[in-house]
Design a protein that fits this description.
about 375 residues, mainly alpha, ABC transporter involved in vitamin B12 uptake, BtuC, 3-stranded antiparallel beta sheet, about 65% helix
Length: about 375
């Protein structure tokens, strides 16, 4: 099997036989030629590929800074030595045991929140339709807090968070069954559902003793401090499954940005795809809240960064995941070092940054997701 890489070129277009379709402007084509004579090709947007590469490099740099900075700072050469399997005992403990698991938690939760936000925004054709704004985050938080203050930590807050996310999503879609998942009716219903679940969370915290409330408090603001290893492993597996499912739904997501009639005319089973997209969003949001708590603004900021950098013809699933992970890593880094030794929960940092970002989205000229 041979692999040919074809880029847009005027001279190449003139030399190409008339039977070969031209490469669209701003795209690259990967062509596979099989020994038996068959051929397959894949078009890649040049802008999207460069955006993904840039986000990956930025995430790698941010991860290195994240591992080096903290209450104890490591020199670059010491960090590299630890990552290569060497280094001193204290340096290895600081990086491998303390900071690296937290970095993984930041990357996985940020990616999950951002991909879920991208899916919900595309599903509703509204840039405000993130899991945090339409109440999925609050539903997951309420159920997780209930497992801590009412039934004990042993009942697994991660499982309860996933159940809460599914419940909130079902209620929101049920309230808007007559109007579908499009427009501001969906947003308003989600805000109302989120407010109800937020009130339930506050009621649960108000009826328990101070020690129990303190144990449940991290689930209400969002933090990556001392996250359970089991929940992190479940998040890693669930995020991988959710990302693969989102990529498999990418063509249907592109069609969902148009009207239902147009999408159906192009061969998409709109109702079925809508429920599949919702299921993936609930899965990613519930697992992310189970690890980090409600860090809703990442689902708003990550997809916006991805869309501004990527080609607008497709849905930037991979770019959203990388942008969300980058935002989460930087936010947690700021929370750890800004007021050290006092640590700010990552949810507070993202709220401070995401509030002005939300106002900017509301005040800037509207831009369609289609």
């Amino acid at each position: 099997m041979s692999l040919l890489f074809v880029a847009r070129s005027a001279a190449r277009d003139k030399m190409r036989p008339s039977t070969a379709p031209p490469v669209p402007h701003g795209s690259w084509r990967l062509r596979w030629q099989w020994p038996g004579g068959g051929e397959a090709s894949l078009l890649i947007s040049r802008r999207s590929a460069l955006a993904n590469l840039g986000l990956l490099l930025a995430l790698m740099v941010a991860s290195g800074v994240y591992l080096a900075l903290g209450s104890v700072r490591l020199a670059p050469q010491s960090l590299v030595a630890v990552l290569l399997g060497g280094g001193g005992l204290m340096d290895r403990f600081m990086v491998i045991e303390l900071r690296l698991p937290r970095l993984w938690a930041a990357c996985l939760t940020g990616a999950a929140f951002a991909v879920a936000g991208c899916l919900m925004q595309t599903l509703a054709r509204n840039r405000l339709a993130t899991p945090g704004i339409i109440g999925i985050d609050n539903g997951a938080t309420a159920f997780a807090v209930a497992s801590v203050v009412g039934l004990g930590v042993s009942l697994a807050p991660p499982a309860m968070a996933l159940a809460g996310a599914a419940t909130a999503a079902a209620i929101t879609f049920g309230l808007t069954a007559g109007g579908g998942s499009r427009g501001y009716r969906f947003i308003v219903a989600g805000i109302g559902v989120g407010a109800v679940f937020g009130a339930i969370t506050q009621l649960l915290l108000a009826r328990v003793d101070m020690d129990t409330a303190n144990a449940a408090y991290p689930w209400t603001v969002g933090t990556l401090n001392a996250r359970p290893t089991g929940a992190l492993l479940v998040l890693a597996v669930g995020s991988a499954v959710g990302l693969v499912m989102a990529m498999a739904l990418s063509r249907a997501l592109s069609l969902m940005r148009f009207s239902d009639a147009v999408a159906q005319g192009l061969g998409s089973q709109v109702a079925r795809r809508r429920w599949q997209v919702l299921a993936v969003s609930v899965l990613l949001t519930g697992l992310a809240v189970a690890v980090a708590g409600p860090v809703g603004m990442v689902g708003l900021i990550g997809p916006e960064i991805a869309r501004s950098l990527s080609c607008r013809r497709g849905v930037p699933i991979i770019a959203s995941a990388q942008a969300g992970a980058l935002v989460m890593v930087l936010a947690d880094l700021v929370g750890r070092v800004l007021l050290a030794p006092i640590e700010l929960p990552v949810g507070i940092v993202t709220a401070v940054v995401g509030g002005p970002w939300l106002l900017w989205i509301l005040l800037r000229p509207l831009r369609s997701l289609a």
